[in-house]
Design goal:
heterodimer, A: 6 strands, globular, B: alpha+beta, Heat Shock Protein 90, five-stranded antiparallel β-sheet, 5 strands
Chain lengths: ~110, ~140
């Protein structure tokens, strides 16, 4: 499991490879906060290579979304598979995040 | 072609893991493999089992055992042609799992924690929390779809 961060235009794009769970959530949080500190304001997390997410992983997404908004930025999500969509719907987090079907659509939406 | 599973076919996993969240994925992968072999539905293998088991294990490690590296967590998973029963036992003094839980609603949407038990209950057919003294056991039951 790993996180890859790259810039696409002025959007910070994070790829989550593997699981986003209690054992690695802090790593994701720190990487995104570092980018926020460096001035990034538009963030996209791409889940096309993600297995599953637990409540800690969901919690980190909520926390990051809040912190980014406090700095005048925005966090958007893309490429949730059907299982991950179910998870967001169960927890009602699909109402908190702007979720795009593809990375391209998410990038265009900023 | 999907092979038939005989009703008496079953797999048992029983192990003790160090009290460290880095061991969670290995346990989850083993249980997922057995469920896949016994032809549980893809969604159960990829969503219900891994998420609910991860929640039970992280609760045991971080709350039950209070993140104490000298403790261990015992896992027993029995998979057969009709259901999966997982028991996760910690070595703590007991904790109120309901107290660590919030109702998922628009008011609590922006809370960072508190969704663990909620997800276990949504993703499993049954969740039981029993004081086994010493320690607590969470039992997860999922009927094969």
């Amino acid at each position: 499991m790993s996180f890859t961060i790259k810039k696409e235009s002025d959007v910070v794009v994070v790829d989550v490879e593997g699981q986003l769970i209690v054992g690695n959530r802090q790593e994701l949080k720190q990487k995104v906060l570092d980018e926020l500190e460096r001035g990034g304001r538009k963030f996209l997390i791409d889940f096309s290579q993600t297995g599953y997410i637990d409540s800690s992983g969901l919690g980190v997404l909520v926390s990051l979304s809040k912190k980014i908004r406090e700095q005048g930025g925005e966090l958007r999500l893309a490429n949730l598979n059907d299982d991950l969509k179910t998870l967001f719907e169960l927890t009602k987090l699909d109402t908190l995040f702007q979720i795009a079907d593809t990375r391209e659509r998410a990038l265009q939406s900023f | 072609m999907i092979a038939d599973i005989s009703p008496d076919q079953h797999r048992l996993i029983e192990l003790d893991i160090p009290n460290d969240v880095r061991f969670i994925e290995r346990v989850v992968e083993r249980v997922q493999r057995e469920c896949r072999d016994l032809q549980f539905a893809q969604r159960q293998v990829m969503l219900n089992v891994p998420v609910a088991l991860t929640e039970a294990l992280s609760n045991a490690i971080l709350r039950g055992n209070a993140d104490d590296p000298t403790k261990t967590v015992h896992v027993r998973a029995l998979v057969d042609s009709s259901r999966l029963v997982i028991e996760v036992r910690d070595q703590g003094t007991g904790f109120d799992i309901d107290a660590c839980t919030v109702d998922v609603s628009t008011e609590t949407l922006e809370r960072e924690d508190g969704r663990g038990l909620f997800l276990m209950r949504k993703l499993m057919d049954r969740v039981e929390c029993v004081a086994t003294g010493p320690g607590s056991t969470v039992r997860l039951i999922l009927n094969r779809a």
